[in-house]
Amino acid sequence: DSPEIKEQIFRKDDKLLTLLKDVYVESRDPPVQVKDGGGGHLPCKQEEKRLTKLGHLGALDVKKVPKGKISIVEALTLLSNHKLDPQIWTAEKIAAEYSLELKEVNSLLEFFIPFTVQEFPKETKKAIKS
């Protein structure tokens, strides 16, 4: 707390200042060495996601899916819509609505056909005789 010590701390030494101005420092980082780990731990690119068109399952429905993919509920819905009204639900409209590629939608509509359950009237059923 003495004023003499404080004065010595804050006093500039001209000789040291001139020597300090002559100092030149060059700093370089060492070359980076890549460890051959197979690239398994590299961070992956964040996928774009879209909100799904929710079905009747509420909490069990998937809320977000990557663009270019659909949930099971959406797949069943779009197949059913196309089957009921193919003029309105064309492959182009489905591709735009669900952010899918047209080629994939065409394959989906061609190879995945929802089946219809039909019940026969009771009078046409044959009774089993013992």
TrEMBL record:
Signal peptide: none annotated. GO terms for biological process: mitochondrial respiratory chain complex I assembly. Transmembrane segments: none annotated. GO terms for cellular component: mitochondrion. InterPro entries: NDUFAF4. Binds calmodulin. Interacts with NDUFAF3. Belongs to the NDUFAF4 family. This is NADH dehydrogenase [ubiquinone] 1 alpha subcomplex assembly factor 4. It comes from Sapayoa aenigma (broad-billed sapayoa). The lineage of its organism: Eukaryota, Metazoa, Chordata, Craniata, Vertebrata.
